Amino acid sequence: MDEQHVQIICLLSITINFNAMKKVFLLLLVVFPLTQIWAQENKEDRNFRIPLIGETAPSFSAQSTNGLVNFPDDYGRSWKILFAHPQDFTPVCSSELLELAHSQQEFDKLGVKLVVLSADPLSTHKDWKAALEEVNYKERGKVKIKFPLVDDENLAVSKKYGMIHAASNSTRDVRGVYVVDPNNVVQAIYFYPNQVGRSTEELLRAVTALQTASKNNVMTPADWKAGNDVMVPFLPTPGNKKAVAATDDTYSLSWFMTYKKLAK
Fold first, then answer.
1. Domains contained in the chain, number
2. pTM for this one?
3. Burial level of 230, CB count in 10 A (0-12/13-18/19+)?
4. Same domain for 157 and 119?
5. Which of 57, 81, 93, 98 is catalytic?
6. Is residue 28 situated within a structural domain?
7. Is-catalytic flag, 10?
8. Number of C-alpha atoms within 13 angstroms, CB side, residue 93?
């Protein structure tokens, strides 16, 4: 092979390599931005937030021990409570479910529908429910669990309700309680850690207070219980230190604290 042929072959090789590199470069120009967009979208998807008081409760559909649940639509104009758990068969959560089960009649009297959520699959929910119904809790006898235990193994509901940290899929903090009014608006939220059981008595008190406040356009003071005096709404403004006008059923402890007696 003479020198001229060698030069031609080298030029062809360089041209082929250049064209190949050009294709790779163009491909990278397309792929790299797409990966950045995908990464950004994934990052945004991790921005889970708790629905705040006054916001509409996020809706969801999921299977439960009572069949398909469409929350909150299935429960119409009732008050609703979504009570979440990180895992089935945990001791604290088991005690909470038994307390709720023994208080079902009290919630029924208030027109409250209970929905329990757990991050385990439906099959485990069924086993847990069956085991709980065999427990003689606090010597009160065995009890049937009538409310649904919702399957949230994929964490879809937990994410909608802001119970999953952005940095992980840990279910440790799936311990929220959401009280939702007849208009499907969140009226109360609270979270407890795994090692501290939630109070069914406080939940009943809070719902009773919310219903009383809504029905009578009043407020309830600290540690209020049904039958106690309520408070007249008052919004302080600069320079205004005039108490609410007294009536036969009201009395004031100060210009900013007026109580009212509700009809029995």
1. 3
2. 0.81
3. buried
4. yes
5. 93
6. yes
7. no
8. 25
